[in-house]
């Protein structure tokens, strides 16, 4: 049994990782400051995890949290492009300074490996598709810059201190427990819940933008593989975590009409500042280096997600 520290454990991805690790019989410790995470995401597992309410900006708390840990899964972040455009300093603090704290604490505690939640936003709006890891990054939003800076810190800590680090560039992860209620929530959480309530979702832009939407179980599997992959293949490396297929918002809206039964039309609003037009991953590096293979395709993931929200529509 290994001990895992999950930063951002009360978030959508952090709490999903915790559940998966518990079901494998692993020991789970977690930190969260509830800035975007929610207590309800971990309430059912609180008696089985070592939870500490703490901010990753608190270096002492990070040192305490890393003591005796084998693997750190660093998910804590302020994950939003538009929020970072409004508050670049706040984004930088959480997404860069916070990461450096986690790395320092992990280095000092001699953890075996740190796996980091990087972002596909690092690629920016370069026209080449699919995006592969050897391409030059070209971030647009402050969020994308911060996520890329933290990736560089991951590599730096491997080179300077031999702390094994792996960055996973998540491509629009979605699924149960993703918060639909904030103005900065992911589009699938917002669309699914709006359409279940019979409300019009808002498409920002022309609806022809596309994403490699990736169901949560695939991201969870990638993290577990990234902990165990041989260092020669994984340490100091960056990997795309995606499905290798993209869908437009219009296509997504149509799929959701079928699943939710919503028969109305969408509204349209202005394109967001810092938005990316098309995003699609080449996942061959993760396949070769980590043994990663997506197991849940987009439509199936969408069905599972809507089912989960449907059971909770009364609370939405
Ligand atoms: C970026 C990253 C993603 C992750 C995420 C964290 C890219 C390609 N992806 O996601 O990997 O790091 O940031 O937040 O950079 N939209 C609407 N209506 C809405 C909400 C959104 O039309 O109500 C549009 C939005 O303008 C965008 C698309 O939906 O074109 C996806 O938006 P999102 O906020 O779900 O995710 P995105 O792509 O900014």
TrEMBL record:
Xref: InterPro entries: Epimerase_deHydtase, Lipid_A_modif_metabolic_enz, NAD(P)-bd_dom_sf
Bilayer-crossing residues are none
Q: Which residues form the NAD-dependent epimerase/dehydratase domain?
A: 5-242
**Highest taxon of the lineage:** Bacteria
Q: What is this protein called?
A: Vi polysaccharide biosynthesis protein VipB/TviC
User: Organism, per UniProt?
Assistant: Candidatus Sulfotelmatobacter kueseliae
Organism placement in taxonomy: Bacteria, Pseudomonadati, Acidobacteriota, Terriglobia, Terriglobales
What gene is this protein translated from? vipB
């Amino acid at each position: 049994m290994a001990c895992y520290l999950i930063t951002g454990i009360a978030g959508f991805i952090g709490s999903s990782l915790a559940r998966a690790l518990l079901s494998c019989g692993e020991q789970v410790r977690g930190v969260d400051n509830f800035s975007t995470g929610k207590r309800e995401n971990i309430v059912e597992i609180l008696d089985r995890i070592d939870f500490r309410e703490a901010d990753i900006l608190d270096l002492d708390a990070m040192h305490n949290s890393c003591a005796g840990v084998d693997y750190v899964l660093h998910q804590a972040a302020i994950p939003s492009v538009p929020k970072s455009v409004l508050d670049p300093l706040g984004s930088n603090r959480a997404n860069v300074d916070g990461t450096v704290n986690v790395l320092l604490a992990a280095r000092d505690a001699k953890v075996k490996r740190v796996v980091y939640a990087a972002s596909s936003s690092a690629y920016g709006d370069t026209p080449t598709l699919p995006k592969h890891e050897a391409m030059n990054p070209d971030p647009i939003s402050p969020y994308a810059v911060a996520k890329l800076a933290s990736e560089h810190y991951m590599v730096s800590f491997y080179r300077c201190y031999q702390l094994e680090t792996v960055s996973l560039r998540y491509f629009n992860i979605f699924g149960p427990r993703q918060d639909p209620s904030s103005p900065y929530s992911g589009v699938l959480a917002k669309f699914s819940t709006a359409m279940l309530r019979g409300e019009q979702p808002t498409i920002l832009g022309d609806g022809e933008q596309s994403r490699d939407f990736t169901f949560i179980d695939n991201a969870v599997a990638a993290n577990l593989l990234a902990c165990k992959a041989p260092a020669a293949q994984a340490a100091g490396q960056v990997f795309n975590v995606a499905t290798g297929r993209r869908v437009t918002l219009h296509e997504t809206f149509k799929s959701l009409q079928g699943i939710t039964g919503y028969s109305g039309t969408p509204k349209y609003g202005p394109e967001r500042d810092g938005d990316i037009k098309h995003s699609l991953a080449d996942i061959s590096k993760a396949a070769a280096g980590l043994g990663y293979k997506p197991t849940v395709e987009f439509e199936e993931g969408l069905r599972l997600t809507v089912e989960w929200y449907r059971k909770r529509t009364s609370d939405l």
